[in-house]
Predict the structure.
Amino acid sequence: MPLLTPSYVLSKACQDEFNAAWSIREQHELALFFPLALKQASLNDPRMAYLQYEDCMEADLQKLRRSCQNLVRSLGLAAA
C-alpha cells in the first residue's frame, strides 16, 4: 500500500519497492496496489499516475476511514 507523498515519490527505496511490485503485478496479473494519496505529489513515473488511488489528501478522517473500508473489501475480509 503505497502512501503517495512527495517523500515517497523521491525515495529510491520506495521506487525500488514500487518497481518490484509492478513487475509482479504484470507477470502474474495480480492487483497488488492499494495506493493512498496523502499529500499532493508530482507523479513523474507514468505508472504511478496510471494507478487509481484513494484520495486522503485533505487529512480527512472520514476519507481515511472509507479508504480503509475499501481496502478491507478488496482483500475479501469481513469488517470487524
Summary: The mean pLDDT is 79. The chain is about 50% helix and 10% strand. Strands lie at 3-4, 36-37, 54-55.
